[in-house]
Input
Amino acid sequence: MPDKLSQLLYAARWLGMLLVLGVHATGAFMNFNDLTTQNIPLFAGVWRLFISYPFGRQAVIGFFVMSGFLVGGQVLARLGGEKPFLRDYFIHRFVRIYMVVIPATAITFVFDTLGRTIFPASYGSYPIFEGHYDPRYILTNLLNFQGVIAKHYGTNGPLWSVGYEFWYYIIFPLLLAPMIVSIDQTRGRICALLAMLFCIAITLKQIWFPFGLLLWSLGAIISLLQKPIVSSPRRALIQFLSTGLLLGVILNTDVIKAHPWVQYLSDTMTALAFANLILAIRFKKNLNWKLLDWHGHKSLADFSFTLYAIHNPTLMLLRAMTTAALGPDWSAGTASHEQWAALALAMALTIILAYALSRFTEGKVGAARRYVKSALVRLWPDPASGLTSP
Output
């Protein structure tokens, strides 16, 4: 992969995650309800416009496209190879997900329990979390069914997208199993049939699962293309930014609530614009974008998954603590100095916690993969040829 494309994907990961964090932190700590066009300060107006659900949603859709490009593209590249790869693939995917999901679920349980016990009057007061504290949802979280066919556990609503990605990781290579040269074709057809039945069963319950799979697969498909649709990366970037801006402004939260189908249009256009940008940079030689020369993008991206997985329960606990410290009326004002200060402190503390935790989650993924692989070799020394690596 070209260095500039790697840098773009790293930058997109941490910037997108910072946007998602800002959206959820703003919802928890800021009150913009009484602001009007006559009394709104410029900074508050810009913040409320861009740090909002439509733009946060675009960041999540970008995560899906990136995941499809990196993970699904890897599968497509290996379909015709004689070397078996599925065993290593599933080890990599399972370890990558569960090294973060298990600690994140544990933190959600601990933080929610502390918050509901110590701050019962203010914790988890949002209606969206009602009915989500049943311990059974811990199991559905660990099975990555949150948002797919079950509720998410506690205040960790953002984990919904992780559930979708996990199952896309599983079913994508299984759907393509008859095309994998290194496995028995009968076994491949059985795998594809089971994956199709799984997709149909989920689709009967909710329609976004197959739609999200199409967006995820778009990322995989563009890995096969041999030339960009738009040759100029600058033009592709302008198209991406202008598309995102128009979608965020025109197809805002009120429009989506009134016409839910609009969300599908917005998600599709976001995915296409971002995929186009990836392609343009992938095939551009000697791209001279100074912003992509900074190798700090990787360092920030390396703990973005952990930050995504723990930020909401952390913010909810910090909000309850803020209410206990400042009193119940601190959030009643409109974009007060106390709210801005609480917002900045909460975001900083959440980032620091995520970074510290990532040293034991994302930072240990490589070692965990090696351990799991060696353990499987000892327990399963001669597995079926289609599900192992030499």
